[in-house]
Amino acid sequence: MTIQKMLNIKTAILTTTLSLSVILGGCASTSPANNPVHYKASGDLGTIIERADGAVSIVNTTRRTVEGRIEGLGDLSHASIVYSRDEQFAYVFGRDGGLTKIDILNQNIDNRVLQAGNSIGGAISQDGKLVAVSNYTPGGVKVFDAETLELVVDIPAIYTDENGEQKQSKTVGLVDAPGQRFVFSLFEGNETWIADFSESATSSNATPKITKLKNIGKQPYDALISPDGRYYIAGLFGQDGLALVDLWHPEKGSKHILPNYGKGEQRLPVYKMPHLEGWAVAGNYAFVPAVGRHEVLVIDMNDWTQVGAIPVYGQPVFVMSRPDAREIWVNFSFPKNDTLQMIDAESFELKKTLKPGKAVLHMEFTPRGEEVWVSVRDEDTVKVYNTATYEEITSLKALKPSGIFFTSRAHRIGL
Predict the structure, then answer these.
(1) Whole-number Å distance between alpha carbons of 28 and 12
(2) Closest CA to 361 of 351, 381, 375, 350
(3) Which of 3, 42, 191, 251 is 20 to 30 A away from residue 392, measured at CA?
């Protein structure tokens, strides 16, 4: 090979290398590193119900800021919220029968239906494809397609009374349960029903298998499901005690537990009864708001017997466990609803008392529990506390705030 040919080859290689460098350089200039794509995330978002204005504020728990506000949601006097699995959509259950699907990323109403005259909460199925609403008027549960809000099935709460007549009951205590099930109770019917959608072909053509547990106790008014989804517990307004259903063995029916729960106390209006959803579970113990007494009861979940009673400031409403289960936080009904108290979950001793302000209605822990957000209705504010030091970090303005719901609920049973 001549020297000239070798020089020509080297020149060609050099030219090719330079061309590739220019091309790759051009690619690099349009890479995400230089032109980043800004995605919206939902993991640290949440919603706050502003009940007086029929609105929901969207908040960021990392920045502790209000990101936006969605109005036109109807009567939110006893509203609750559940989330889609991807945390983009929140389903708002209004007292006026409204079911509203809101997009918390784009901050708008995706869809809304007025599905009944009087409603009391809802739930989303295990696979996230069905949304159920519990209704007072007309009594029953309606189940909707989570994507379109089209009605999938109507389950009227028809029961037979002691005279053999068929009547329609209010439904209460609606929760989602493992196995693609919804569980709820009939207030006048004294029953608990399990609606099993596991064998339904599609969400748009779902026919549930209904299991009816009769004579569970008089007038179940609220209910909860244990964090592992095994136990469904209904509070009884018409008698003392609670009704327990083991969802691993529903064929065994309902079991009456804590027969002295509420015993000897004057009956209180339902709106002043403690929220059973606010039970706290720490280890093998459940911490339960006493009815009409200034106590938090301690229940051994191995045999469902009471093993203690902790004196507190007022009549408890929500008794909630910090995510690490180390502390129990308690708020109270009127007229002592300006206070929060903390209980040591190991020693059962009172640790701290806070005075956030008038009408503390709800609290919500951040997913890992380093902070707690507290709604103070009569001061139009939500206060954020450090759960290790109990110091107030900041506060956010909200119009008559009540329920606080963070998107981490999307991945928890019964929430």
Answers:
(1) 24
(2) 375
(3) 42
Give residue for tokens 């330079």: 18
- Which of 150, 193, 151, 196 minimizes the C-alpha distance to 174? 193
CB 383 within 8 A of CB 392: yes
pTM: 0.88
DSSP label of 310: E
240-274 per-position pLDDT tens digit: 899 999 999 999 999 999 988 876 555 444 445 67
Cis check: omega of the bond before 138, within 30 degrees of 0: yes
For the record, the structure tokens of 232 come out as: 């469904």
Helix (H, G, I), strand (E, B) or coil at 202: strand
Q: Which element (helix H / strand E) includes 11?
A: helix 3-29
d(CA 97, CA 140): 12
Q: Rounded distance, CA 95 to CA 99, Å? A: 9
| Segment 90-133, tens digit of pLDDT | 999 999 999 999 999 999 999 999 999 999 999 999 999 999 99
pLDDT in tens, 33-57: 455 545 678 999 999 999 989 999 9
Longest dimension (CA), the chain: 114
Place of tokens 């289960």: 325
Q: How far apart are CA 136 and CA 122, in angstroms?
A: 12
* Rounded-to-integer distance, Cα 71 and Cα 218, Å: 39
Residue 90: CB atoms within 10 A of its CB come to 26
The residue type of 335 is P
Q: Find all residues with CB under 8 Å of 407, minimum gap 6, and list them.
A: 42, 43, 44, 45, 46, 83, 87, 104
Distance CA 194, CA 151 (A): 19
